[in-house]
Specification:
The chain is of the alpha+beta class. It contains 3 helices and 6 strands; from the N terminus they run E-H-E-E-H-H-E-E-E.
Length: 119
Amino acid sequence: MRNVPVTDIAAVIRSKNSGPYELTFDILFKDEKVYRQIKNIDFFTPERMAALYGVTKDEIIKIVYFDPAFAVKITMVRPVVSGAPGDTDVYGAQQHAPLLSLQIPLAEISSAPYPASRS
């Protein structure tokens, strides 16, 4: 096992509003084998996402693995209602930044699509 930056194995990492009270995050992986490993170890948990975003576990609404797209979708309560005073990102499109720092433990794959670790 080695830790691989999510930015090396994901084709898309994005966030957006899921209505005015929720944010949703999508991570689409480049490779099915890598996606299956991540799903099998249940890497994306409410506890991990809550810690990453500094919220309670109860504020993580749902985590869904979507096999046809090699993707995971995470939905959480929006910390500030979209468009309310103090909201700095009305569309929720800039909230994925904490995800970019994730390191995911993966087993070696003979034809691994990810480069050698930068750490």
